[in-house]
């Protein structure tokens, strides 16, 4: 199949979106210039008949999903012009998208040596919308499950305070399904099929790189919340996700931008004013650092043989690790290091099947986490100060201090650091910022 070269296109078109109530399939259509349509399909299983009170909210949510999910395709060509057909968007919507596309594609632009500043402009064709109204959403939470530790910590916090919740995931990962099953919560699995032509465009050399996938999952779950009736979407994005990966040319580049508090607040406000006034979008773990999360996860032994944070498990096309942890990537390195202060050594080695801290070939990977001679990796890992505090803690423990990577830290890196900045305890204190609805703030006490 030979497709138009998206890098030569003048315009990226949001061609239209639709929802088939009988099959539960949403179709999101895009194109470059007058090229073939790229159609993403998202299937909401056993979709109930839409409550008429929620019709307007559903239509607004579907358009928002169309606009946000377009980032996967837009990035293949990054044309100068954006056209939204079939419906018009207002200033607030355009501002939200301009920021999401610029910041969410920050890593993509940095890696591809592109400067997108001032170049992404969604066209405004409508007056600002009148304020959204409440649409009678029942009081219950959707908890997105990613297969990793964070969402499982959230699940257990919600159970502790008796919040009615459903575990939801996007895509067909068996690993995520097993974690969701183990929560014992009701489950909802939403299928997502990226337009296959995108993979062909990638093979033909289109622009490629990281996209703000949490924003896409968020928009899918907003549609689900309105369709099935949930008034809360409880993500599990920690405080540390707001820190930039690096600074470049005056711009903060954050791999995890769509997990940041900035994006959370932006989407939360937008949804309540433009989609449904009674829908709460927030992260339950926002006050917690990565280390505060791993401390809690260390006690959730029922999930230790099931979870994985290694993103190689979640590829659509590429090869996946045989045994849940590839042991080579930044996520494997970070989660090993961040759990180590809170687990016994045999427990941790059993989870990973090996001791990554006693493997000299992993030195560069751990150096990057410590921000020693490298910048923090482009992955969802904690702040450099968290990794340094965890490593320092291990260097003081008999069971870890002889291990190759820990020994090297002690002899080569530690003498260059200020020991007073390496304490674990301050990093375990909850931060004040969060958007939890009042009924859920009890989890902040339950998480102590
Ligand atoms: C699983 C993964 O990390 N994938 C990234 C990887 O993709 P790769 O080519 O190795 O394989 P596939 O996942 O099979 O994807 C094939 C191509 O499809 C495109 N694509 C995929 C999903 C999507 O939503 N939009 C897409 O455009 C893309 O062109 C793929 O090449 O490398 C890609 C290029 O850097 C990344 O775009 C892939 O990232 C996925 C979108 C993904 O799901 N990544 C998450 C695991 C991830 O990075 N999560 C973040 C959360 C932060 C955030 O929301 O920004 C994290 O954990 O750090
Ligand atoms: N396929 C998915 N479907 C729904 N939600 C997802 C999916 N993948 C990730 N998420 C959610 O996105 C957020 C960020 O994902 P992230 O990978 O950081 O979390 P995690 O998988 O719970 O933990 P870990 O940091 O150990 O990987 C979490 O709330 C997670 O539940």
Automatic annotation (TrEMBL):
Record key words, sorted: Cell cycle, Cell division, Cell shape, Cell wall biogenesis/degradation, Endonuclease, Hydrolase, Isomerase, Nuclease, Peptidoglycan synthesis
GO MF assignments: endonuclease activity; racemase and epimerase activity, acting on amino acids and derivatives
Pathway in which the depicted protein is active: Cell wall biogenesis; peptidoglycan biosynthesis
GO biological process: cell division; cell wall organization; peptidoglycan biosynthetic process; regulation of cell shape
Any Pfam family matching the protein: MurL_epimerase_C
Matches recorded under InterPro entries: MurL, MurL_C, MurL_epimerase, MurL_N
Domain of life: Bacteria
Enzyme Commission number, as recorded: 5.1.1.23
Gene Ontology, cellular component aspect: cytoplasm
Residue stretches making up the MurL N-terminal domain: 6-284
Top EC category: isomerase
The MurL C-terminal domain, residue ranges: 307-416
Catalytic activity annotation: UDP-N-acetyl-alpha-D-muramoyl-L-alanyl-L-glutamate + ATP + H2O = UDP-N-acetyl-alpha-D-muramoyl-L-alanyl-D-glutamate + AMP + diphosphate + H(+)
Record-linked HAMAP family: MurL (MF_02209)
Entry's family note: Belongs to the MurL family.
Function: Cell wall formation. Catalyzes epimerization of the terminal L-glutamate in UDP-N-acetyl-alpha-D-muramoyl-L-alanyl-L-glutamate.
Name of the molecule in the record: UDP-N-acetyl-alpha-D-muramoyl-L-alanyl-L-glutamate epimerase
């Amino acid at each position: 199949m030979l497709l138009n070269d998206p890098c030569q296109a003048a315009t990226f078109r949001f061609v239209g979106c639709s929802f088939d109530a009988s099959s539960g399939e949403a179709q999101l259509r895009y194109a470059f210039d007058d090229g073939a349509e790229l159609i993403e399909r998202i299937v909401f299983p056993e979709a109930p008949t839409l409550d008429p009170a929620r019709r307007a909210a559903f239509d607004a949510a579907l358009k928002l999903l169309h606009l946000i999910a377009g980032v996967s395709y837009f990035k293949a060509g990054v044309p100068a012009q954006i056209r939204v057909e079939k419906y018009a968007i207002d200033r607030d919507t355009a501002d939200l998208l301009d920021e999401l596309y610029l910041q969410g594609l920050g890593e993509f632009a940095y890696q591809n040596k592109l400067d997108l500043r001032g170049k992404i402009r969604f066209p405004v064709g409508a007056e600002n919308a009148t304020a959204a109204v409440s649409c009678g959403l029942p009081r219950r939470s959707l908890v997105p499950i990613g297969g990793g530790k964070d969402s499982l910590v959230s699940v257990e916090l919600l159970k502790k305070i008796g919040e009615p919740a459903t575990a939801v995931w996007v895509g067909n990962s068996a690993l995520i399904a097993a974690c969701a099953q183990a929560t014992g919560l009701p489950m909802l699995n939403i299928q997502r099929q990226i337009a296959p032509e995108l993979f062909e465009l990638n093979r033909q050399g289109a622009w490629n790189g990281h996209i703000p996938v949490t924003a896409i999952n968020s928009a899918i779950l907003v549609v689900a919340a309105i369709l099935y009736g949930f008034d809360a979407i409880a993500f599990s994005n920690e405080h540390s996700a707001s820190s930039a990966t690096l600074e470049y040319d005056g711009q903060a580049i954050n791999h995890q931008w769509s997990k940041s508090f900035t994006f959370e607040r932006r989407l939360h406000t937008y949804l309540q004013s433009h989609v449904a006034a009674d829908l709460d979008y927030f992260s339950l773990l926002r006050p917690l650092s990565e280390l505060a999360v791993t401390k809690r996860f260390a006690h959730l032994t029922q999930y230790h043989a099931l979870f994985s944070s290694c993103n190689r498990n979640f590829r659509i096309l590429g090869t996946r690790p045989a045994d849940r942890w590839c042991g080579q990537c930044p996520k494997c390195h970070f989660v090993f290091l961040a759990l180590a202060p809170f687990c016994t050594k045999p427990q941790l080695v059993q989870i990973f099947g090996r001791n990554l801290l006693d493997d000299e070939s992993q030195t560069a990977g751990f150096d990057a986490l410590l921000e020693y001679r490298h910048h923090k990796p482009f992955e969802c890992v904690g702040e450099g100060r968290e990794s340094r505090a965890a490593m320092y803690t291990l260097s003081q423990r008999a069971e870890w201090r002889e291990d190759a990577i820990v020994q090297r830290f002690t002899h080569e890196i530690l003498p260059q650091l200020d020991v007073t900045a390496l304490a674990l305890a301050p990093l375990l204190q909850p931060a004040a910022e969060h958007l939890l609805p009042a009924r859920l703030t009890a989890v902040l006490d339950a998480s102590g």
